[in-house]
Structure formats: C-alpha cells, structure tokens
Amino acid sequence: MAKKFRPDVDAPEYKGRYYPYDIIKEGTIALVVVSLLVVGLAILFGSPDDPAVTLKEWSTAQPVDFATTALSELNGTSGVAGYGPPYNSASDGQKIGPFPVAKWVGVHIPVDTAQDFVLMPLTTLPDVPALTTGLRVWSAASETQKTAWLDAYAKGTMSFANGKITDTATGAGPVPLFMTELTSMARTGALDADLIAGHGYYTTDYTKPLLFLSDGQWFPSIAANDHLSGDQWGMMNELGNYPGQAWLWLYTMWYQVPPYSTSWAANADAMVWATMMVLTVLLALLPFIPGVRSIPRWTRVYRLIWREHYRATAQEGGASPSREGPPSTPTA
Amino acid sequence: MAAIYSLFDALLPLTSPGHYIQWHWIQISVANLIVIILMIATFIAALVVPFPGRRRRRGGDE
C-alpha cells in the first residue's frame, strides 16, 4: 500500500520546467545596492551623537539630587545597593517564578556602593586634612555609630549654596563633610575619572558611573524626555527623530502589559527574557508544530510569488491541487 | 560636509525632539512607524512586482 502523502512534511516530485538562475549575480547586485544605500544615507543623515552624560554634568545641574543619591549609596538604601546579583548579595535579584536565576549566576560584577561610589573616591582627594581625619574616624567607628550618623544626616534638610552642599542636620559625624567633598569632587569631573579608572588606558567599562547615575532622579528624567525609559517602549527608540531598533518591538512590548508591568514588575527583566526564550524555541520548532506549520499552505502566499508557474501549470493541465506546493528551487 | 548636514537637517530635522504616537498602551515614534511601513511596502512589492527578466524568459530563454 502506498504511503499517504503528508502535505506539510513530504515534498512532491517537481515535474515543471527549470529556469536558469544566477544567484551569484543577484547576491552581488543586492550587496552593492545595500552598501551604497548604507554609506549614502550615513553620509547624508549621520547618526545621533549626543555626548555621554557625566557625573560632573549631574552634580552641576542638580547638586542636591546628586548628594541625596550619594547619601543613599553610603547608607545602602539606593536601588543598586539593594538590587542583589550581579552587583551584591543584598537580595535574591531577578527571579523567574520561584527560581532565583540571578542568584544562581551569582555576584560577578561586585559593587559596594558605599565603598566604590563614596569612600574610595574620597580617599583620592589630596590636601584635605579634615577629610582624611573624617575618613579615619568613619573607618574606626562601629556599625551602630555609622548608622546613627547616617540617620541623623538624613533627618536634616539638604541645600546647595555658594558652591557647596550644606545640611541642617546635627550629630551626623563626618557624613556632612563626605557629602560636601564628594559633590565638590564630582563638580570638577574628578569623580568621573575616578570611577572609570583601573580598567586600562582606553576603557569602555562605564558600569560604576552609570549605576551611580541610575540611582538619582536626574538621569532617568533625561531618559524619559527622550522616550528611552522601559515603560515608554524605550528599547526600540532612538534619540530625536532617528528611527530606532524597531525589530525589538516584541521584546519591549512585554514591559508595557500586565502582569509584566504590574505583579511581575520587580522581576520583569527575567520574566521577559524567559518569555522570549520560549517564543524563540517555538519559532525554531515551527516545522514540527502541527497546525502552525500548515499556515503557509493555508494562506497560499507562495501561489502569489510563483503565480506565473501556477498559471502555466494550470494551462498545461498540471499538478493536482491537493499535492501542489511551491516549485522546487530552480537550478543555477 | 557640515553644509550637507545642515541642508539635510533642514529637510529632515532628525536631531530635533522626537515625535511619538500614543494609542492606549501602545507608543511608537513616527520615525519607527515610517520604517515599519516601508518594510511592509517592500514586502508587498516583493510579492507582487514581477521578477526582472520574466518577459525575456517567457520569450523562450529557458
């Protein structure tokens, strides 16, 4: 008994005509045309070239926001300080359901916000005896004492006048000096240099200044103005009126819809990644999924592409409709 | 080169603040929308525009 023909799996024997086809010629033409388009459009329109945002810019534009953020880095209440892996062990980090995947991967970009963003940079400032003494006092103090100083400082009102950060707090130990000196340091640009130092002469590692910036109010407001925030489909947007990464629409779409934007929001990065991995596997397995793999046959778009072939076949009284499919690849 | 940039920036002000379209929770930049429309138009054109050289083949080149 003859095996039954399965239209989504079996290929019918091609009995039509063969046409010569020069794939090398077509490939070369496509390469040249696309290359000319890319180079030509790049010359005519360029690309967005906004200068990188710096800690110097931030502390100059909004010194109080900078100092408030610096305090949160020192007392461990900032977003990065409590983020968990890959930066620290303050929490489990991103989870997929009950699975703490970030914790499994571990702390592989260690960031101690108090040390890295505040205390270590301050130690590099030369010729400030009061600061040297303050850092020594801080280092010798107990954790309880440090917490008491930080709490006292947080109760005051911070302001910026005469080029310096001041606070109405009392009994805050060396913390007011730290905030004043760190803000002054940032306003000179020295903090930018310090946070990217130690990564070689030509560094592309801006992790620390970027994390510091992300904890404040100023940097996210710049991103929001340019429609680059996560809840603004920012992943697929570009600066100004330049087209962006439109192909990331599906990835960024999940961030806009519940439950990713509501009950899963704290773990949205991991949940969106997991969703996209599932969809990617489904896409790879498309030829094996009954029903879905039949969509091209049902929609018959191939008949539109190869309409001349089917017209000619019909005129010659050719293939049976139940077994027809796209013609075999023409020979070169 | 600066003059060319100025000319095309005047024609297509790409560096000015972006224009966005908002519909419920969907938000898209006009630039991205134009690119997507062009991609769809290219796809439809690829489906319906005859292959180059088709007439020549029809004439008995096969």
Shape of chain B: flat
Give unreliable regions of chain A as ranges.
320-324
Give Rg of chain B in angstroms: 20 Å
What's the number of helices of chain B? Answer: 3
Q: Major β-sheet of chain B, in short?
A: 2 strands, antiparallel
Q: In order across it, which strands form the biggest sheet of chain A?
A: 1-2
Structural class of chain A: mainly alpha
Strand order of the largest sheet of chain B: 1-2
- Which oligomerization state do the chains in this entry correspond to? heterodimer
**Mean pLDDT of chain A, nearest integer?**
90
* Rg from alpha-carbon coordinates of chain A: 31 Å
Outline of chain A: elongated
Write the element-wise H/E pattern of chain B from the N-terminal end onward.
Answer: HEEHH
Task: Kindly estimate the percentage of residues of chain B that lie in beta strands according to DSSP.
Answer: 5-15%
* Count of discrete alpha- or pi-helical segments spanning 4 or more residues of chain A: 16
In round numbers, the mean pLDDT of chain B is 80
- Elements of chain A, N to C (H/E): HHHHHHHEEHHHHHHHHH
CA distance, first residue to last residue of chain B: 50 Å
Structurally, the number of domains of chain B stands at 1
How helical, in percent, are the residues of chain A? Answer: 40-55%
Topology:
The complex is a heterodimer of chains A (332) and B (62).
Chain A lengths: L22 H23 L9 H7 L1 H13 L25 H5 L7 H11 L5 H12 L2 H13 L2 E4 L2 E4 L7 H14 L1 H7 L10 H9 L2 H8 L23 H5 L14 H17 L10 H5 L1 H5 L1 H9 L17
Antiparallel strand pairs in A: 1-2
Helix pairs in contact in A: 2-3, 2-8, 3-5, 3-8, 5-8, 6-8
Chain B lengths: L1 H10 L8 E4 L2 E4 H19 L5 H8 L1
Antiparallel strand pairs in B: 1-2
Short note summarizing the structure:
The complex is a heterodimer of chains A (332) and B (62). Chain A has 332 residues and is mainly α.
